[in-house]
Amino acid sequence: MGANRDVLAMSAKWLLIGVLRMTGGVMLCALVFVFCPFEWMVAIHGRLGLGELAYTPLLSYLTRTLSAMYASMGAILLFISFDMERYLPLVRFFGVLSIIGGVGVTILDATLGLPLFWTVSEGPLTVALGVVFVVLAQTVPARAG
């Protein structure tokens, strides 16, 4: 019975490391939008069927700083993944924040009338990711000492 638990814990550890690295890598891609021309954002906005995106300094600032925050969080997740047992409490905390934030974003997206594909993907996927972080982090034993 103990051997099965050890195998489960090791599997959960490597799965969690993989999820942290994959999520961190994807979030780091947001760095492109800190520096890209605003016209790229306009084109993407239009292709998503979100209408016209008019330039204002505040909108440019907000989209770029949000992208920088996503990229920073991605870098943090990658960093955590290289000493995951040490940062397990932070992984759990990030999971709980993702669950709460995902619910909030889902409500916000629906309230703002964003397209259905956006509303049913952004928030619910964030909640699911948070659940994965919490469940896997609970399965991985913390480093002793």
Structure, described:
The protein has 145 residues and is mostly helical. It is built from 7 helices and no strands. It has helices at 2-28, 32-35, 38-47, 57-81, 88-112, 116-119, 122-139. Helix 5 packs antiparallel against helix 7. The longest helix has 27 residues, at 2-28.
Q: What are the key terms here?
A:
mainly alpha, 0% strand, 78% helix
Number of domains: 1
In percent, how helical is the residue content? over 70%
Mean pLDDT: 93
* Rg, Å, rounded: 18 Å
Runs with pLDDT <50, length 5+? none
End-to-end distance, in Å? 25 Å
Structural class, by secondary structure, is mainly alpha
Query: How many alpha or pi helices?
Result: 7
Order of helices and strands: HHHHHHH
Note the beta-strand portion. under 5%
Indicate the overall shape: elongated
- How many beta-strand runs? 0
Largest sheet: none
